[in-house]
């Protein structure tokens, strides 16, 4: 029932030190543990919203 298998490859490229607690929580909720790490997440509206919130801290590639 998955309409598409698109995924996003997201890399954490900038530290969240000095940014608000909700942005730090968003980074953690996306599954990041350390700077420079890359995670692959499904391309859906909730993930897109998370990426939008921390777009200044991550790089995104569509796969």
The SS-based structural class is alpha+beta
Rg, please? Answer: 12 Å
Helix content: 25-40%
Beta-strand percentage?
Answer: 25-35%
N- to C-terminal separation? 19 Å
Element pattern in H and E: EHEHE
Q: What is the molecular shape? A: globular
State the total count of DSSP E strands. 3
Helix run count: 2
Assembly annotation: single chain
Look at the structure and give the mean pLDDT.
Answer: 94
Biggest sheet descriptor: 3 strands, antiparallel
Would you kindly provide a written description of the structure presented here, covering whatever features stand out?
The chain contains 2 helices and 3 strands; from the N terminus they run E-H-E-H-E. The chain is an alpha+beta fold and 63 residues long. Strands 2-1-3 form a 3-stranded antiparallel β-sheet, with no helix packed on it. The longest helix has 9 residues, at 21-29. The radius of gyration is 12 Å and the shape is globular.
Write a concise keyword list for the protein shown above.
63 residues; alpha+beta; three-stranded antiparallel sheet; 2 helices; 3 strands; 29% helix; 25% strand
Kindly summarize this structure in a few lines.
This protein is α+β, with helices and mostly antiparallel strands. It is built from 2 helices and 3 strands.
Task: Outline the secondary-structure elements.
Layout: E1 7-12, H1 21-29, E2 38-42, H2 45-53, E3 58-62
Antiparallel strand pairs: 1-2, 1-3
């Amino acid at each position: 029932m998955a309409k598409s298998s698109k995924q996003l490859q997201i890399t954490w490229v900038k530290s969240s030190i000095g940014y608000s607690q909700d942005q730090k929580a968003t980074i953690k909720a996306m599954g990041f543990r350390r700077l420079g790490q890359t995670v692959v997440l499904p391309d859906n509206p909730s993930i897109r919203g998370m990426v939008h919130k921390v777009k200044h801290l991550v790089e995104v590639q569509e796969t």
